[in-house]
Amino acid sequence: MIRVLLADDDPLVRTGLTMMLRGADGIEVVAEAADGAQAAAAVREHKPDVVLMDIRMPVMDGLAATRALTRHDARAPQVIVLTTFDEHRLVLEAMRSGAAGFLAKHAAPEDIVEAVRRAARGEPALSPSAARALIEHAAAGPGDRAEHARQRLALLTAREREVAEAVAEGLSNTDIGARLHLSLGTVKAHLSSALTKLRLDNRVQLALLTHDANPRP
Q1: Sheet harboring 125-126: ordered strands across?
Q2: Nearest to 38 by CA among 74, 15, 81, 6
Q3: Is residue 139 very low, low, confident or very high in pLDDT (cuts 50, 70, 90)?
Q4: What is the pLDDT of residues 2-24, one digit of tens each?
Q5: Which residues form the HTH luxR-type domain (predicted)?
């Protein structure tokens, strides 16, 4: 059973999401929060697997709450930022804050349910517009960002770097194992080691860093 926490300052949105998710097999809504500070407290109490996090909330906004929840904590839940503000700047800020996914609130119910399941499996969950934002980010002018990213990635072993590059292509752990002729457990071990060395929180941040190091011409 995937345990989900809903964080949104609009009670009608929380009610709608609760009704939708409770109709999905294998998903349980364990708590709700009206702001980021409440979300952080609810995570400590209920230990959800996934948090659906609004951005625009009082007291503590969703980006600050995401950073607080995910920063270098292996036990942290996977956070999917769910917002009406479908802006590329927010996509990148959410990913760098530690979010595992980004969806617009107008996403289809089945897409939100699938995003929750993907996040619970440790896979990125991005709306098409969010994916486009990441592609455009990778294609942007490199500046000093590329050199800084290369210096950080130099901390990895050759195999960890191969895993990072496969993650940046959007491959799942199973697909990475097939490409590199590694067991699933070995792929996970290399991925975990890379994230620890680079002080990153999830594979989305690893993909961003790898794209930064290899900008498109």
Answers
A1: 27-33, 2-7, 50-53, 78-83, 101-104, 125-126
A2: 6
A3: low
A4: 999 999 999 999 999 999 998 89
A5: 149-214
Spatial CA neighbour of 97 closest among 22, 217, 200, 213: 200
Q: Which amino acid is at 83?
A: T
Does residue 125 surpass a pLDDT of 70?
Answer: yes
pLDDT recorded at residue 87: 60
Rounded to 5°, the CA angle 151-152-156 comes to 110
Q: Which two tokens stand for residue 8?
A: 């949104």
